[in-house]
Design brief:
The protein is α+β, with helices and mostly antiparallel strands. The chain has seven helices and ten strands. The protein has helices at residues 19-34, 64-70, 137-151, 161-164, 188-191, 224-236, 242-247; strands spanning 6-12, 44-47, 53-56, 86-91, 101-107, 118-124, 155-160, 183-186, 201-204, 210-213. The chain has a ten-stranded antiparallel sheet with strand order 3-2-4-5-6-1-7-8-10-9, sandwiched between helices. A hairpin with a 5-residue loop joins strand 2 and strand 3 (53-56). The longest helix is centred in the N-terminal third of the chain and has 16 residues, at 19-34. The chain is globular, with a radius of gyration of 18 Å. It comes from Aliidongia dinghuensis. Residues 7-232 form the Immunity protein domain.
């Protein structure tokens, strides 16, 4: 296997969550991940209060809200700008390894913004060959959907860096909302804007949304069937515009 990264990201609409609420979401997300297996059992937080050293999350439970608050967006003068939201990063290991993943959160933005929206990004370690078990379809799907459930996301996608290298930016609203993906989730309001693709596995979710899946195995950008399904998903969700994306 080549050194490739896998990513799952989710987004939600404008929501003025304060640092305490964001800290609670982060704790719940870590707990949901921990329940998925031994590789995800322990979690660490990048402690922005102490030069971003990673500390065990269990030791930072009472200071997590302060850590999130310290990650406030700053303006060009380096002054706090709470309307820009807050950032915080978790990881299942303080060091990069084949089984490590990081979760970067940006939340608390009260108004939909193109470059400062609310969301989380889960990534495998850069420059490290990921453990096949970590990027196996069942586990990676479960991690993405745990993010969706925890944060009340309006949409989510999963992809590899080999797939993202093949994205072709369209001339629609400057750039598309969605690109070809391994998996794409839409909440019920977003789902109402599109027609599910034919010939692609589509799983209804308990919240009334839909999960579209290009491959029930680890995605391979060199597999023509995987790529065809990824593009079919992209074409299906193309009607969603940027303004509609930030509405939810």
């Amino acid at each position: 296997m080549t050194t490739k990264n896998f990513t799952a990201r989710c987004s939600w609409g404008a929501r003025a969550d304060d640092p305490a609420k964001l800290a609670e979401y982060l704790r719940r997300n870590a707990e949901a991940f921990s329940a998925l297996g031994p590789m995800l059992r322990s979690w660490w937080v990048a402690d922005s209060l102490y030069e971003y050293d990673f500390v065990p999350l269990v030791h930072a439970r009472h200071s997590l809200a302060a850590i999130v608050e310290h990650g406030v967006q700053c303006d060009d003068e380096n002054e706090p700008e709470p309307l820009g939201g807050y950032r915080c990063t978790l990881a299942n290991s303080p060091k990069a390894s084949p089984t490590s993943v990081g979760l970067a959160m940006h939340g608390g933005v009260p108004k939909g913004e193109r470059f400062f929206g609310n969301g989380c990004v889960l990534t495998t370690a850069y420059g490290v060959v990921p453990d096949p078990a970590l990027i196996a379809y069942p586990l990676f799907k479960s991690m993405m959907m745990a993010m969706v459930k925890t944060w009340g996301a309006s949409c989510a996608t999963a992809f590899s860096n080999e797939l993202s290298a093949r994205w072709q930016r369209a001339k629609r609203d400057n750039e598309p909302v969605f690109d070809p993906s391994w998996m794409t989730y839409l909440s019920a309001p977003m789902l109402a804007l599109v027609d599910p693709p034919e010939g692609v596995l589509c799983e209804p979710t308990p919240d009334g949304g839909l999960l579209m899946i290009a491959a029930e195995e680890t995605f391979d950008a060199n597999n023509p069937e995987h790529m065809a399904a990824a593009w079919a998903i992209c074409d299906a969700v193309a009607p969603i515009t940027m303004s509609e994306f930030f509405q939810w």
